[in-house]
């Protein structure tokens, strides 16, 4: 059929006297023609010369609008079929190569760093950072005023030490109310403004959550000592004997301050457990209701939260890590939006193996990292001691986990006082070059020193007011006094001087 059509085509064109055919030719036009191109006798009388080549080697090319039958005949020809198959397999091969290459690139590429990995963490002790209302105590508005300093340092993560309502003004530990802010630091409105300002600058904030204990002024404790409903077992109560005015505790456990960790309560006539001061009764974390209370607190915030569990007591108890895992699960429920991952750090342990357990496992996550104080705890400074401190962490850290390094904290002497002024820059440089997240403490970037111990109690020498400039009170407050004395070196060691030196170095 195709051949017949092909043979008749030149004739048809001839008969139409050269009328141009643009390819849209109906089959019916060919059906009636039984043309024998080899017979000159049956040539039409118009005497049109037929090209012999066209008649001897008829070639029909595909044309637009050809019917399905014709198309199928063309498509089954070897040259089209083979070409089609080659193209088909080339596409399959290319797709496989593309998928393999994508998998390989993903597998071999370093993971994108999350926000808590990509920036140093800058820890602020809020009472000492900046005072905004001239009362001599740093506050939340003060932190907001000084956010430029944080961005100047190119730091993206601020860790603000506890500012919950607390009767322990200096320590900030032992919340009277997990739901409120201590008036010394400002109001909830101030906090919301600070949070908005922090987020406007693309920064993140980490807050303390210290669920181990509360203040004895806390409403829960007041309800518990009166055996009120579910609060009865919110704390660790035990019978103890009282005779001749002296109390015999349930056992010989001692608090971190060295005295008995049990305190007799006159209201309930029982002893409660406290691993810190007697004003800081430990919560009973074996009580599910207590765990839920703490979770509710975190649900109600949009914060990246740092959970600090003091666990000298609880670490020996079965279920300590179950509680941390449950915290992590709660935080994961609020981490589903892109870029809203909730970070959780934890305190470590004196024992490196026990510390590493806080990382969790590949399948059961706990903290993103336990804070690493190896560089702070070095007994002396030398190449070997640094190597040992770094190696201790890196060798023990579980695979696929993320390291971190701290050079300062509210509970340790400052670099200048611990190691020496001349090593401040070296330690800061070391901090920024080690693999993992650097953690620093306000004032370490300019080499602040502890204040003289005769001026303060032993808890506070590294908490002196931030030294902003060489003006009165180092620019910390415009009031007449400061809650702790400003270090006497503030005219030579302050942020303004530090920035000048830094800018000159960069020029
Ligand atoms: Ca203030």
TrEMBL record:
<dbReference type="InterPro" id="IPR006047">
    <property type="entry name" value="GH13_cat_dom"/>
</dbReference>
<keyword id="KW-0472">Membrane</keyword>
<feature type="region of interest" description="Disordered">
    <location>
        <begin position="24"/>
        <end position="43"/>
    </location>
</feature>
<dbReference type="GO" id="GO:0006865">
    <property type="term" value="P:amino acid transport"/>
</dbReference>
<dbReference type="GO" id="GO:0005975">
    <property type="term" value="P:carbohydrate metabolic process"/>
</dbReference>
<dbReference type="InterPro" id="IPR045857">
    <property type="entry name" value="O16G_dom_2"/>
</dbReference>
<feature type="domain" description="Glycosyl hydrolase family 13 catalytic">
    <location>
        <begin position="123"/>
        <end position="475"/>
    </location>
</feature>
<keyword id="KW-1133">Transmembrane helix</keyword>
<dbReference type="InterPro" id="IPR017853">
    <property type="entry name" value="GH"/>
</dbReference>
<keyword id="KW-0812">Transmembrane</keyword>
<protein>
    <submittedName>
        <fullName>Solute carrier family 3 member 1</fullName>
    </submittedName>
</protein>
<feature type="transmembrane region" description="Helical">
    <location>
        <begin position="86"/>
        <end position="108"/>
    </location>
</feature>
<dbReference type="Pfam" id="PF00128">
    <property type="entry name" value="Alpha-amylase"/>
</dbReference>
<keyword id="KW-0325">Glycoprotein</keyword>
């Amino acid at each position: 059929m195709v051949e017949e059509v092909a043979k008749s085509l030149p004739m048809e064109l001839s008969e139409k006297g050269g009328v141009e055919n643009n390819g849209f030719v109906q089959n019916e036009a060919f059906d009636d023609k039984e043309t024998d191109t080899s017979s000159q006798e049956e040539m039409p009388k118009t005497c049109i010369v037929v090209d012999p080549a066209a008649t001897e080697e008829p070639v029909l090319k595909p044309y637009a609008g050809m019917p399905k039958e014709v198309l199928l005949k063309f498509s089954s020809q070897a040259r089209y079929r083979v070409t089609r198959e080659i193209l088909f397999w080339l596409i399959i091969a290319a797709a496989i190569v593309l998928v393999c290459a994508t998998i390989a690139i993903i597998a071999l590429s370093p993971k994108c760093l999350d926000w808590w990995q990509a920036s140093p963490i800058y820890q602020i002790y809020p009472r000492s950072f900046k005072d905004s209302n001239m009362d001599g105590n740093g506050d939340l508005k003060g932190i907001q005023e000084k956010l430029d300093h944080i961005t100047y340092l190119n730091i993206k993560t601020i860790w603000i030490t506890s500012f919950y309502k607390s009767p322990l003004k200096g320590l900030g530990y032992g919340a009277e109310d997990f739901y409120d802010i201590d008036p010394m630091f400002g109001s909830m409105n101030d906090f919301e403004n600070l949070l908005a300002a922090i987020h406007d600058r693309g920064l993140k904030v980490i807050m303390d959550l210290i669920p181990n204990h509360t203040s004895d002024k806390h409403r829960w404790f007041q309800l518990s000592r009166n055996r009120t409903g579910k609060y009865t077992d919110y704390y660790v109560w035990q019978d103890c004997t009282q005779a001749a005015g002296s109390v015999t505790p349930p056992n010989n456990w001692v608090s971190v301050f060295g005295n008995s960790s049990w305190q007799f309560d006159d209201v309930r006539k029982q002893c409660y457990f406290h691993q810190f001061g007697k004003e800081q009764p430990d919560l009973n974390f074996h009580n599910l209701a207590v765990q839920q209370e703490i979770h509710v607190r975190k649900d109600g915030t949009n914060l990246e939260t740092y959970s600090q569990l003091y666990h000298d007591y609880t670490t020996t108890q079965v279920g300590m890590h179950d509680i941390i895992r449950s915290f992590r699960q709660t935080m994961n429920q609020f981490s589903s939006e892109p870029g809203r991952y909730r970070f959780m750090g934890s305190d470590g342990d004196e024992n490196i193996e026990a510390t590493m357990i806080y990382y969790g496992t590949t399948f059961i996550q706990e903290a993103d990292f336990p804070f690493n104080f190896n560089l702070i705890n070095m007994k002396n400074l030398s190449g070997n001691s640094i190597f040992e401190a770094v190696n201790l962490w890196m060798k023990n850290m579980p695979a696929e986990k993320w390291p971190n390094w701290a050079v300062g904290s509210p509970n340790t002497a400052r670099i200048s006082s611990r190691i020496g002024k001349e090593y401040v820059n070296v330690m800061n440089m070391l901090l920024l070059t080690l693999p993992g997240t650097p953690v620093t403490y306000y004032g370490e970037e300019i080499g602040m020193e502890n204040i003289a111990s005769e001026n303060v109690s032993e808890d506070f020498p590294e908490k002196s007011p931030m030294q902003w400039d060489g003006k009165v009170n180092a620019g910390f407050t415009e009031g007449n006094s400061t809650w702790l004395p400003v270090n006497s070196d503030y005219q030579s060691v302050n942020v303004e001087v530090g920035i000048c030196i830094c800018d000159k170095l960069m020029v």
